[in-house]
Amino acid sequence: MVSSLITTSYFFLSLCLIMMFSYTYSFSNSFVIVSILWLFIPNSITEAAPSYRAHICTNETTYTPNSTFQSNLNLLLSSLSSNANSITGFYNTTAGLDAPDVAYGVFLCRGDIAGANGCQDCVADAVKEIVQQYCPNQKKAFIWYDECMLRYANQSFFSAMEEWPPMYLWNLYNITERDRFEQLLGETVDDLVTRASNDESGNVTRFATQKVNFSAFQKIYSLAQCTPDISGSDCNRCLRQAITYFPICCDGKQGGRVLLPSCNIRFEVAPFYSSIPTAPPPTPILLSPPPPAPTPSTSPKGKGKISSQTIIAIVASIVSVVLLSVGCCFLVRRAREWYYNIEEENVGNEITTVNSLQFDLGTIEAATNNFSIDNKIGQGGFGQVYKGTLPSGQEVAVKRLSKSSGQGATEFKNEVIVVAKLQHRNLARLMGFCLAGEEKILIYEYVRNKSLDYFLFDPEKQGQLDWSRRYNIIGGIARGMLYLHEDSRLRIIHRDLKASNILLDGDMNPKISDFGMAKIFGVDQSQGNTSKIVGTFGYMSPEYAMHGQFSVKSDVFSFGVLVLEIISGKKNSDFFQLGHEDGLLSYAWKQWRNGTPLELMDSTLKSSYSRNEVVRCIHIGLLCVQEDMEVRPSMASVSLMLSSLSVSLPLPRKPAFFAHSRTEYLSLQPTSKSREWSVNEASITELYPR
Description:
21 strands, 37% helix
């Protein structure tokens, strides 16, 4: 009862903090802040479900439904599940008699939960999910949870030390005092490996943990474990091989882990295992005499009496909940007042913001040599772009918008203010504007390496974009779009994401540009309709091209097309001219269905690519261009898929505009005269300075 009251107190306090922070920050930020509080609630209050982390299906061989191997596999998994109460947390067995239909399997639970309910629950979950969700019809599979590992195969792997395939995961947060942290971590894991693989200590479970002080307020927690069926020397070799992956995955991170078939090793700055002895002590321990038995209660028979300590604990918990509730209301009220005061101040500061962003026309004309043709660096549906140099010597990109825009001066200024507040490393930064008569001009930071299409679609320059750079560009675009959709002050839908609107800085980092057609929404709005279609043929989602419905998912579609272009090195709009019957999306889908996704890859990448990364990006690209907008992932999901290899991906469905001829492809265009676009990669623009 006392435990439940304490839990309730934590709940009210957390709810209070969420309400308070949500007035001043985004909900996601306040949730993260309050989540830290829950780390201090005793683990005994609730028992968490097993935490899935990763799986690998080798795809080497598959079995047919109702086959002998499937029957043996079902028997094997049932046996593993029923033996999950093993005191060692490890069990291996076989099912079947005749090769090649014999099934071999093993599970390994984390050493601190061996023989406990957590081990049984994890194995039961792994047995179910590995065949139903993650690796159906596969004869070889691995699955990892925080609490356990399970694998099976059609060939014996017992007592064999295996290092392949590896899987590694890392904490997203960086560590401070990196050099000192890595030195201490190196010393810690070195000792940890020695203890986990030491036969003389009686450590038959091949499991060890270590906790060391990094600072006055921070510790390093680490864990190493091998499957008990391998020797101590093999365990040592496996763990030291795992450590070699740390610089690849986890350099400078607050945590990381490497998962190999025969061993695993992990470190974090927060506790993730139970505090238990890691190995039996080498010498006997003299036990102290048992304490004297408590004095029997003198309460009358049949009537229980609550002790004074229990009463005090109950009353204290109730009072705490009441005080927290009252305090919560007070803090929320003060937070609201503070928030709205800030908003009022911001409204008053808009005039100052306008003045600080506005350039006079004479300065811009001087910077661009009066819009000289020699300074012109680009042209699109929005107008012309010139390179300019300000009196301070700073280089800028000057966009001179078309004079056909019907937008008023006030609306132009207001929208410039909104876009100027966007601050993200993967967005081209708007530095100011010029408004003089019919002239509407935007001033952006100058990005030295021009745009992505300048390199991507030029056979002579494609080689400068090796796979590492292309993978970095894909991730950067995803982060920039996630900021526009979810993390900026207002939700912004770009509506014209394409290769020519991705600028590259001196280090080939991507910066999303040209917000000329973007739509700015409130935080609770995510879609809209328009009677005038603007955008670029080949990048537009079907619901937008056909019905004028645009949303964050129409941007996701454009992102998917862009990803497939980056991998293939070919324009979507030019794909028919390269000897293919179908468009890029159709071709990518066919290669995926045929099990040959790497046929899509640019031939210049053959010597530099990572197979897993390329296939994963093709998979993500196909998920983004699915015809049904509801099943396309959000940019938040896309970013997570790209940053964590442990996130499993759903199977993609048929992409939009899947057709067998160019005529059929173009037949999807609407006939309304109000909906027009250019087939030749040009944008038909509804001008908004975003």
